Amino acid sequence: MTFRAHPITIVVNLRRFLYLIIISVIRGLLAAFQGGLTGWLRGAWVDVLVVLVMVGLSVLQWRALVYRYEGEHLEIDSGALVRKRVLVPLGSIVTLSAIHSFYLRPFRAVRLRMDTLGGGSREADFIVLVHRDTAERAMALHAGEEQAMVRRYTPRTTSVLALAFLTSNSLAGIVFIATLISQSGKLVGAEFSQQLVDTWETTARTLAFGIPPAAAAVAYALLFGWVVGFAITFLRYKNFNVRRSGELLKIAGGEFTHREYAFSTRRINFLDIRQSLTSKFLKIYSLYIYSIGYGKYKDDIACLMPAENKKDFAANLKLLLWEMEPIPRQLAPAKGGILRFLALPLALGIGIPAVMGLARLLFPDWWEFVLFLGLMGLVPVLYFFIIRVMDYRTGGLAFDGENYTIRYSAGMYLHTVVIPARRVILIENRQSLMQRRKDRCDCHIFTVAEGRMCHILRGLDRKKAEEFLNKSYNIYKSSK
Predict the structure, then answer these.
(1) Burial track 119-148 (b if 16+ CB lie within 10 A, e otherwise)
(2) Would the pTM count as exceeding 0.70?
(3) d(CA 112, CA 124)
(4) What share of the chain is helix, strand, coil (3-state, %, to 5)?
(5) Partners of 88 in the β-ladder
């Protein structure tokens, strides 16, 4: 199978040669100083020539890029002037992704991404714009023949709404709004952009309801940012569905930009069953999977199950990934070691009032605003404190002969992580000076996803932890 990039790539390639515009800019400046409009028109042929060179180079780059499937290899030829050939074993391609962006649909163009075992953690190893039919053929070739039994999972709309509600990030929404305003200033004019900012300021003052206007602006910005983040997350996971055939997982979803992913379950590095404090009390579970190339970009789909109750979550996990189900903990944190979990939230809880007191002395006129920010800052600290208490009560380690089940907290989330033993690259037991007195330790378990990741179990009894890890290693080794 041989294919070329979509012709729309010619337009995309033009940005690589934008530096040539400097020739026209310099010529225009010289003409303005020397001969005015007449001088500029006399040399306009130079500008036309620059544009033709840019288009010509872009066409040559497009013509030179050829992909071929040769037996067990993918062969990639590129480079108009300096030729380059890359051979990629098909077995090293972990995830193949097809991104159907809404602005490319009129051209029937699809962004095809390939991620391999040897690639980087920030960018896909190969990205090419191809015709939609070519993308479908490539995805079918990567997936292979579909098994007779296909297991399907399609979440309810309420599950997607719950995921968007529980995971929406105010900061991400604010960044999106700020980018939108700044870009509107470039497209429509700075005056329009300033009008949007002034309207926001006026609205915040009108709806202050007795609190400082600056504090009201911050609060409403966070709220509006959350609403925007909610909408973005919902649209990203709308029409979400998962299919498993044999060891192949195919995941798709998205409203305006439709995304498809295909990879083997053998290439999954670990599962992450994630809960916030709210979802913990509501007994709602979300499942994220970590595999090279899946969820790599911030606007990618990263979830496998958006938000399900305990019964449905267990049934769907058994349906899709029965070989990686979590088991009850076998090693818990040491009794009496709760201070290891609460030290940081307690320090923050003491530090924020101390900073507020100092700010009152230095900036007395700003006290109402400082008080508002301080009280708002204590809310996530209290949330963090409760999360750490839950971590102490539920955290721990287990091993079923093939997979480690790790329960711990990171930031504002509780995690139940299932890692195949073959994916663990390093285990370290670390002791601080304070932990040596009681012979306790923190267990750091390292695995590879998009880069090295560390899972930290706090406050374990050192001897029990070492005995457990040695025993689990011997069990796994003997089974192989």
Answers:
(1) beeeebbbebbbbbebbeebbeebbeeeee
(2) yes
(3) 10
(4) 50, 30, 20
(5) 74
